[in-house]
Amino acid sequence: MVIRNFFLVLVGFALCTQLAFTQVNTATISGTVHDESGAVLPGASVAIQNQDTGISRTVTTSETGRYSAPALGLGVYQVTVQLPGFQSQVRSGINLTVGREAVVDFRLAVGAVTQTIEVSGEPPLVELTNANLGGLVDDRTIREMPLTLNSRSWDTLAYTIPGVVKYGTAGGGFNSGSGGNKFSVAGARSYSNSFLLDGTDINDSSNSTPGGSAGTNLGVDAIKEFKIVATTFSAEYGRASGAVVSAVTRSGTNELHGTLFEFLRNSAFDARTIFDLEDRDGDGKADLPPFRRNQFGGVLGGPIKTDKTFFFGAYEGFRQARNETTIAVVPTVAAKRGILPCAPPANRVGGSEAARLCPSSPINSSGSYGTYTVTPNPKIVPFFQYYPDPNGQIFKNRVTGDDLYIGEFVGSPKNVIRQDFFMGRIDHQLTPSTNLFSTSGGQHRGAKPGTPAVRDVAREHRFHANAAQCRPVRLQSVGAILGRGGNDGSGKEAHLRPRQDHWDTHRRRGARNSHDRGGRIGHDLSAVLGV
Questions:
Q1: Residue 277 burial by CB count (10 A; 0-12/13-18/19+): exposed, middle or buried?
Q2: Which of 147, 247, 264, 482 has the fewest beta carbons under 10 Å from its own?
């Protein structure tokens, strides 16, 4: 099935079906060429080259002097304009970010083509071709700005954009989902946002912020940049009533480059809170619960064939073992034997054991009615072992001072999280006007203690083709994503996601046609014992 679907994508690309271009994960350079008097110059040759990869594209100005080069990969570009009878002009340092439509106009002076005027510097950053509002988190910010200690997740940098606030006050379904970072953009609810990676939907099963078992989005070093489009975005993004968070993965260049990293955090750097009351070493003092966290990995990218084919790979591992202080209310040893406090007659349930066995008047001057004893049901007794005995305070009646036969249990159970992120990407320049890229990635999540020893595996494979011109008709952008989730086949599934085949094809400007079978559905199997 996967092979057949992938073949259909390639056939559609080969037939050059009429598809409108979208700016979800690429960028555009356009503009107008004039002479010194302001008249437009048709027929001028405009060469556009990516200075990182050497990939170039050449377009020709129209009768109105306009040119447009859509579906360009992200990076720093140089634009050269030539026309017989006029001096050549070169514009460099044009930084294309995700979704940007850079307008670069030229004014050529009369002279020989061999004469060249070079202009360096970024064109105006004011958006002249759309009314989108939002902000960009660029490559430098992602790579150099320190992330929070509680997560190394690229989506936390969304708070650097105006209008983005943390969405942490609502409870229940408002904050459901796998991702721990919920935020509101321009007042919209957190589950109204759309998250895109390389132009494909990555929202979790609750239509909220994606995230792994740690609640974070690993692979910070694999993300080149992401853009938040808050309001007035065009219909090409589709679906979202909130904001659109569009992220793009990094690609290789003509130079081999890579990094290695490891981040360590443990309890030696933490302070004890007022709730950490457990004495673990028996010295009579409360101790700090153990905590160990390691995040490590690396990236590597470079050329397979200079100016033609490039690769990029990334891996990040997350290991955490943390004992978190938990305070629970549990029955005392006496309560497990059936000894219970008597309530005043007005508070007793008619016909109950308390109404039958408790005295009708206080037994002392403090107003205490004493206790009564019942025989626990034999069916309930085996479950008492799941309730630990109190090791903290025993609650008492504030008026009479009687024990309520319930108390606090303070413990620090161990919570283990293991997560692995991996991603690989291949970019290839098929023709001077057509480029392809494919990404493959996923996450492995380890089981926690007390659950079956399985690993939840999620993999995704993306294929994209971008073209400026494909004879005899125009093909601008086509993409597909194939995903799969499952387990290690142990027969006991703590987390199971059915196979997912997800197609995302842009057809007309302002429309998205998507087919999603299975979707991002998470199914948890759990057993709850109660009495």
A1: middle
A2: 264
